[in-house]
Automatic annotation (TrEMBL):
Residues 365-446 are annotated as: Disordered. It is a multi-pass membrane protein. GO terms for molecular function: phosphate transmembrane transporter activity. This is Phosphate transporter. It is found in: Membrane. Its main location: membrane. Residues 375-389 have a biased composition (Low complexity). It holds the Pfam family PHO4. Belongs to the inorganic phosphate transporter (PiT) (TC 2.A.20) family. It comes from Streptomyces alkaliterrae. The chain crosses the membrane at residues 6-24, 44-63, 83-102, 109-127, 133-154, 197-213, 219-238, 308-328, 334-353.
Length: 446
């Protein structure tokens, strides 16, 4: 029993570490558009988001039940070592995608890790496939489409209703609206994502015989999960904030308001019915939808494609890391120790790699070097016809467009020379509001 108690303690600590990484990995979901449009200062934005993440953690436990008693079969012989290995897979994938500035799903990293570790330890009998399909995979596909469509329609409606209004006054109003909608997204993020850690800790307590089957998360579990995700949110995932705020599209205040409102409604609705939704998928879809909703708006498909590839890799990659960790951890105390040491060493190596090019609140709104401002809607440089998402060294020949960009260009032909020049002139000058040019930001050295 002492061994089990110590192991469960390790699982709980590891789960809270994952919750912390979830916080700074997903800060961009709530605050990227608010920061990129200048509606709030970066540090104030993440502080507000952190507080509301904490509050949101106390609003519901439906998603926690999906994790603790729905996705996996506790009666199949799942041990705390398996849960520990699943968390290791999720943490390492979160850190790797954070280093790359890639808005991948922390939720899917956690689920992929738990599923991979369970398959390696127990087999297919330990996973409730129908729950995974109905409450994980289908929402993963539907959520960004629903949020993106809603944001696109909301953006078009917003510009139509405000077409005769004073642009300076509406810009200020939309920035105020952005703050409100960002608060809703932060509250929704705490409600949805903090619950996933609650579910993992509850599952560990059930597997160790401390709680009965189908038990709700205790109050101390809810509070600790809320505090961990809030601390991570306050740290700020600046690399991912830059990608979502500047890399996908150029966002004006009306677009930011429409995107965040659409995302908040989608996340809150899914939390109430127990869908373990990816807030990253929802918010990214909403940002792209807002880009498509504005006349002359740009979606940089090269950046979006890189993001889609990351989404597709999250479940299997986290699952593979977790499966290997589970095989090692089940060898006994030395196996758990080896996995824990590898987790610490790998995390430290990723952090050291991130110090080579620091992104923080002071430069988060600088232009992302992988997504120049003169890219047209296909992600192709309008002037040269080359892939604008690929940086080139000074004096080097521009690189040809990739396969995906070429395919998109074949379906949606690039604008004519005159239209391309007009679009380049329009989109190369970020705006603080409709019709109000802002000061150009400094380029970041690759």
């Amino acid at each position: 029993m002492e061994h089990i108690t110590l192991l469960i303690g390790i699982v709980i600590v590891t789960a809270l570490v994952f919750d912390f990484t979830n916080g700074f990995h997903d800060t961009a979901n709530a605050m990227a558009t608010t920061i990129s449009t200048g509606a709030m200062k970066p540090k104030a934005a993440v502080a507000m988001s952190a507080v509301l993440n904490l509050v949101g953690a106390f609003l519901s436990v439906e998603v926690a039940k999906t994790i603790s008693s729905g996705m996996l079969d506790e009666a199949s012989g799942i041990k705390p070592e398996v849960i520990f290995a699943g968390l290791v897979g999720a943490i390492l994938w979160n850190l790797l995608t954070w280093l790359a500035g890639l808005p991948s799903s922390s939720s899917h990293a956690l689920m992929g890790g738990l599923i991979g570790a369970t398959l390696a330890s127990v087999g297919f009998g330990g996973v409730n496939g129908d729950v995974v399909v109905m409450k994980v995979l289908i929402p993963a596909l539907a959520a960004p489409l629903v949020a993106g469509t809603a944001a696109m329609l909301a953006t078009r409606l917003t510009y139509r209703l405000a077409r005769k209004a004073d642009e300076r006054k509406t810009a200020k109003g939309y920035k105020a609206g952005q703050i409100t909608s960002a608060a809703l997204v932060s509250l929704a993020h705490g409600t949805n994502d903090a619950q996933k850690t609650m579910g993992v800790i509850t599952l560990a307590l059930i597997s160790g015989g401390i709680l009965g089957a189908d038990a709700d998360p205790p109050l101390w579990v809810i509070a600790s999960a809320g505090i961990a995700i809030a601390l991570g949110t306050y740290l700020g995932g600046w690399r991912i904030i830059r990608t979502m705020g500047k890399g996908l599209t150029d966002i004006q205040p009306p677009q930011g308001f429409a995107a965040q409102t659409s995302a908040a409604v989608t996340i809150l609705a899914s939390s109430n019915i127990g869908f373990s939704l990816s807030t990253t998928h929802v918010c990214s879809g909403a940002v792209m939808g807002s880009g498509l909703g504005r006349k002359g708006g740009v979606v940089r498909w090269s950046t979006a494609t890189r993001m889609f590839v990351g989404w597709g890799m999250t479940l299997p990659a986290a699952g593979l890391i977790a499966a290997i960790s589970a095989v090692i951890a089940e060898q006994g105390d030395w196996g758990v120790t080896v996995v824990a040491v590898l987790l610490v060493v790998s995390s430290a190596a990723i952090w050291l790699a991130s110090r080579r090019e620091v992104v923080d609140h002071t430069n988060v709104n600088d232009v992302d070097p992988i997504a120049p401002q003169n890219a047209d809607a296909t992600g192709t440089d309008a002037a040269t016809g080359t892939d604008a998402a690929r940086p080139t060294d000074e004096g080097a020949e521009p690189q040809p467009a990739g396969v995906v960009t070429t395919a998109i260009r074949a379906v949606v032909p690039p604008p004519t020379t005159g239209a391309a020049a007009a679009l380049s002139d329009t989109e190369s000058t970020p705006r603080d509001g409709p019709g109000e040019p802002s000061k150009p930001t400094a380029d970041v050295a690759p």
